[in-house]
Design brief:
Elements lengths: L6 E6 L2 E6 L5 E4 L13 E7 L2 E7 H4 L12 E7 L2 E7 L1 E6 L3 E3 L3 H7 L3 E6 L4 E5 L1 H10 L1
Parallel strand pairs: 2-11, 5-7
Antiparallel strand pairs: 1-2, 1-8, 3-6, 4-5, 6-7, 9-10, 10-11
Protein name: Purine-binding chemotaxis protein CheW
Pfam families: CheW
């Protein structure tokens, strides 16, 4: 891995995650979301972004955590995916960071995350799972 690549560092629950900065289109404050009854639990609802109506995904639920009320710190990380984009709700967005070293996930991480991150990034003051968007969003589109 190139250690000069920058990452957006964010949290969901007590876990820190990161995405390469080139995988993030935009970070926005929480927007009103229209809920849909009987929808998939990870789909919080729908909203209009960039002139299109899109599904808003709770990263908490997608990762198997219980959903929670939004706070002033709740953000949406908009990521490009296939021919469009997917808004992902996260608890907080922390910072832009570079990591000093990377390691493959330990077995306990692999079973917990079932392949949604490729590696663990180690920084000066924290550790974060580097998300694999293809695995994460691929599981969403096939469910």
């Amino acid at each position: 891995m190139d250690e000069n690549i920058q990452y957006i560092n964010f949290s969901v629950g007590e876990q820190f995650f990161a995405l390469r900065i080139d995988e993030v289109q935009e970070i926005i404050r929480m927007v009103p979301v229209t809920t849909v009854p009987f929808g998939s639990p990870e789909i919080r609802g729908f909203t209009s972004l960039y002139g299109k109506v899109v599904s808003v995904v709770s990263l908490r639920v997608l990762l198997g955590m219980p959903d929670q009320e939004d706070t002033a710190a709740t953000r949406i990380i908009v990521v490009p995916y296939k021919d469009g984009f997917v808004p992902l709700i996260v608890d907080t967005v922390d910072s832009v960071v570079t990591y000093e070293r990377f390691e493959k996930p330990a077995e306990e991480h692999k079973s917990f995350m079932s392949g949604v991150f490729n590696e663990i990034g180690y920084g000066e003051d924290h550790t974060a799972g580097i998300l694999n968007l293809e695995a994460l969003l691929g599981s969403l589109t096939h469910s």
